[in-house]
Amino acid sequence: MRWKRTGVPASPRAWTTTSPSLWTSCSCAKCCSAGCRRRTVRLASGCAFDEERLRELFGEDERELAVFLRFALESIREVVARLTGAVARRDGAGVRALAHELKGACANAGAPVLAGLGARVEQAGSARSWTLAERLLEELQDALADGECYVADLTRHG
Fold it and tell me: Quick check: helix, strand or coil at residue 61?
């Protein structure tokens, strides 16, 4: 069973809540058919990507879309790995720079959930709030897993 977030709270603390009132079951065909390993932040459309925006760019060419998204996810994973290292080193300037890079890459890839998490990590780095930054990195990993499921499902059915 997949889960999606029914609202995106302004407070970063609320992003990690598991309150049942904030989650609803998602049966979207674009969700990973293998089922969810854990609850993650999701868009109302049921995927980590802005499908409407991606359809504007790629139309119905799901093969080309899958190639683009695989490349985007690989690039995003590399930035997240470097960002994780910067958080572990408590490198505020590095965290801000890498989170800013992540935010832009995700926005360009049509992944607003990931871009939003990147913005929150950037703020946490500026505030030197390392516990929050670590928690947000976990959310980023979950959202990346959602993106990978989306691309896998697109490839299977495309």
Answer: coil
